[in-house]
Amino acid sequence: MVVYLVDASPKMFTPATNKEDEKDETHFHTIVNCITQSLKTQIIGRSYDEVAICFFNTKEKNNLQDLAGVYVYNVGDRDPLDRPTAKLIKDFSCIEDSFMSNIGSRYGITAGSRENTLYNALWVAQALLRKGSVKTVSKRILIFTNEDDPFGAITGAVKTDMIRTTIQRAKDAQDLGLSIELLPLSRPDEEFNMSRFYADLIGLDGDEITEYLPSAGEKLEEMTDQLRKRMMKKRRVKTLSFAITDDVCIEVNTYALTRPTTPGTITWLDSLSNIPLKTERSFICNDTGSLLQDPQMRFQMYNDMVVKFSVRELSEVKRVSSHHLRLLGFKPLDCLKDYHNLRPSTFIYPSDEHIFGSTRVFVALHSSMLRLGRFALAFYGNPTRPQLVALVAQEEVTSSAGQVESPGMHMIYLPYSDDIRYPEEVHVTSDDAPRATDEQIKKASNLLKRIDLKNFSVCQFANPG
């Protein structure tokens, strides 16, 4: 659940840049465009997310608490905090045309006034985020503004009191599990100064203050330019028992990372009633034509003898390991080639849910593999589909924006011998070998250049965490 808190003071409607060759766009236009793109992405990627759009420092007011200077924007029969709809996105993208006439802009915190619109906005946002448990729902308040000192117009004890109550309101919201983020915009003549007020509001100190502005700029770009992709919820695909030795077995969860989108399964329908058809298999006696039960015995001809097997004996013959995942040994990382990775890998992370101590064993194995530059060779699968896999340890990578790569292991499915085709050696002289002309080489080069995805990075796909 996200509440977008957008500053609507007159300073937000000043040009965002003083360069003559660039478009005369305002900070307000930038934020409207940013939120519009983010809502479009949410409908495609995370359709269950709920959003609310709230303006502060406005002439008109529209909120359940009837607080001055705060306008909760909404359309139709939609709740103030609800899933984004096509009508919301369409109307909000055109809000600049009618904003001044319908909602209006004003300096909310002025000298001689006790009205604190930023305090009111935080109160309204907190009230909007009341529904839903903090344990199961992520709740965020995003503040967009280019004013680094909202209380600059007033002085003395009144200013001190307003700053204290506003920061306390923010701390109360954070204590309830609400995350408050600031996306600041620097004006052409001066850079946004976090130390004046907002560092205390969102709880930054020391080096965090200097690192915050660049990371906030990256977040704004990501909201506007991120890929529109269907995102799956973070959920475990399967829980596996991982046998390290005969005596040590731990529990791990597997997670699916980026996967290709495939068409859904075909459902056969009855041509008359349109009811889905159900497939059933029956055994028919070759001599009498009567229906038989599923046979309990199988047989194999060997030296003109009929050797009978029970179904249970057959499954035991096929069984390679009693566990889902069985460690076989270790190899240097340079033994693992790029062409061994035939299908998307699976991410592995430990779990102490049923086997206590799994995380401790996993961490010891993980750190040793990183230190020695080894990958683990393991058996994975069931009797019907046995497979060798490579477990490659991934080190945690963090940045100012948070965790980029989580620690764990990638399970890479190794190919069977039939999957690897070695190119045959062709013994031909240089004269017999066909050669492309310069024009063909040029055309092929141009084709490859055109199919290149510019400004694309795999990092644009969000981390599963």
UniProtKB/TrEMBL annotation:
<keyword id="KW-0234">DNA repair</keyword>
<dbReference type="Pfam" id="PF02735">
    <property type="entry name" value="Ku"/>
</dbReference>
<dbReference type="GO" id="GO:0016787">
    <property type="term" value="F:hydrolase activity"/>
</dbReference>
<dbReference type="GO" id="GO:0003684">
    <property type="term" value="F:damaged DNA binding"/>
</dbReference>
<keyword id="KW-0238">DNA-binding</keyword>
<dbReference type="GO" id="GO:0006310">
    <property type="term" value="P:DNA recombination"/>
</dbReference>
<dbReference type="InterPro" id="IPR005161">
    <property type="entry name" value="Ku_N"/>
</dbReference>
<dbReference type="GO" id="GO:0004386">
    <property type="term" value="F:helicase activity"/>
</dbReference>
<dbReference type="GO" id="GO:0042162">
    <property type="term" value="F:telomeric DNA binding"/>
</dbReference>
<dbReference type="InterPro" id="IPR006164">
    <property type="entry name" value="DNA_bd_Ku70/Ku80"/>
</dbReference>
<dbReference type="InterPro" id="IPR027388">
    <property type="entry name" value="Ku70_bridge/pillars_dom_sf"/>
</dbReference>
<keyword id="KW-0378">Hydrolase</keyword>
<keyword id="KW-0067">ATP-binding</keyword>
<protein>
    <recommendedName>
        <fullName>Ku domain-containing protein</fullName>
    </recommendedName>
</protein>
<dbReference type="Pfam" id="PF03731">
    <property type="entry name" value="Ku_N"/>
</dbReference>
<dbReference type="InterPro" id="IPR006165">
    <property type="entry name" value="Ku70"/>
</dbReference>
<comment type="similarity">
    <text>Belongs to the ku70 family.</text>
</comment>
<dbReference type="InterPro" id="IPR016194">
    <property type="entry name" value="SPOC-like_C_dom_sf"/>
</dbReference>
<keyword id="KW-0547">Nucleotide-binding</keyword>
<keyword id="KW-0227">DNA damage</keyword>
<dbReference type="GO" id="GO:0043564">
    <property type="term" value="C:Ku70:Ku80 complex"/>
</dbReference>
<dbReference type="GO" id="GO:0003690">
    <property type="term" value="F:double-stranded DNA binding"/>
</dbReference>
<keyword id="KW-0539">Nucleus</keyword>
<dbReference type="InterPro" id="IPR036465">
    <property type="entry name" value="vWFA_dom_sf"/>
</dbReference>
<keyword id="KW-0233">DNA recombination</keyword>
<dbReference type="GO" id="GO:0000723">
    <property type="term" value="P:telomere maintenance"/>
</dbReference>
<dbReference type="GO" id="GO:0005524">
    <property type="term" value="F:ATP binding"/>
</dbReference>
<keyword id="KW-0347">Helicase</keyword>
<dbReference type="InterPro" id="IPR047087">
    <property type="entry name" value="KU70_core_dom"/>
</dbReference>
<feature type="domain" description="Ku">
    <location>
        <begin position="288"/>
        <end position="431"/>
    </location>
</feature>
<dbReference type="GO" id="GO:0006303">
    <property type="term" value="P:double-strand break repair via nonhomologous end joining"/>
</dbReference>
